[in-house]
Amino acid sequence: MYKEVFIRDFSLLRESVDASLQGLSDNTLLKNAFEDSLYVNPLFSISMQKEALKAICEKFLNSNCLSNWLVPYKNRLLERNCIVGIIMAGNLPLVGFHDFLVSLASGCKAQVKLSGKDRFLLPALFRMLCEINPYWSGRVEFTRNLPENIHLLLAAGGEEAAKFFEYNYREIPKIVRGSRSSIAILSGNETINELYRLSKDVFLYYGMGCRSVSTLLVPDGYSFDLLIEAFKNIGRIIISEDYLSAYRYQKAIASMQNIWYIDGGFYLLRDISDFPPPMGVIKILKYGNLSEIFEFTDSNRFHLQGVVSRNFKNSDIEFGKAQYPSIDDYADGVNSLEFLLNNI
Q: What average pLDDT does the chain have?
């Protein structure tokens, strides 16, 4: 019964959000959340907030997706008093929504510590969920402090934050995620349409997500002309002055130090050691053979979230799909629903 209620209510939430995004209903909750989020975090443009919600509706809240996702757990999803603490990152809109969804799917309650940079969208969605079914109001608590008196933990943050969570919650089962980034492997035979789709993998959410492609592996002698042409159109969504200031700063540094770079007008292509590179920069790494690709991916395996390419290996992400993970595409490859159910 719990599973059926969960699927029904979150499917109805999708319908409500979708209606708002399509302009079929005037949702004050979401409208205010968009504006408040942009005010406290200039990188959260309204269009990118809406894009995040569209992805959640399509990939997470579709009734068929929810039903198929939960089939292996149909006899294990029961209402429980177990409390999952969730510490959310704030690098992109609703980045912690999947942890929220997983916690409630498991039948647990959730105690959620929101990031100061993303503290309006999820509470707005939760209020919409409670309007659909008041039952949920007793299952979630939002807190400004770190979760206390919890049984399990799902946490995300930078490397130092991850160490802090590991130590301070050492007595309870947990998943703690640090910083990761994604790459694309190019052969030089990509079409302009493939490279245009790649531009969304790179620039959506200003490249701040762990699924954002920040590094391009290209063959020796690669010509960047087609890529630069393909990337032009997405420049229209790059409106944050914070991002543009970072880009101009990196350009000034590279110019003063007489370092090689290609200026794309709102980004730099650079052969830089940092992985991931700073905001406004796309790291370029040239390879001569497959062994050099494997060497890079193997040495960075603990900092690598995803690989975008046409046919590098079976587990590759298609061009344009990096920012649209399916509901069972778990961060860091760790099945968080299975983890909660096994540790309750």
A: 94
Query: Per DSSP, what are the bridge partners of residue 338?
Result: none
Residues 104-139 pLDDT 10s:
999 999 999 999 999 999 999 999 999 999 999 999
Write the pLDDT tens digit of every residue in 251-307: 999 999 999 999 999 999 999 888 889 999 999 999 999 999 999 999 988 889 999
Residue range 198-257, pLDDT digits in tens: 999 999 999 999 999 999 999 999 999 999 999 999 999 999 999 999 999 999 999 999
The CA distance from 203 to 238, in Å, is 8
DSSP 92-108: STTTTHHHHHHHHHTT-
Round to whole Å and give the CA distance between 263 and 29: 40
pTM of the model: 0.93
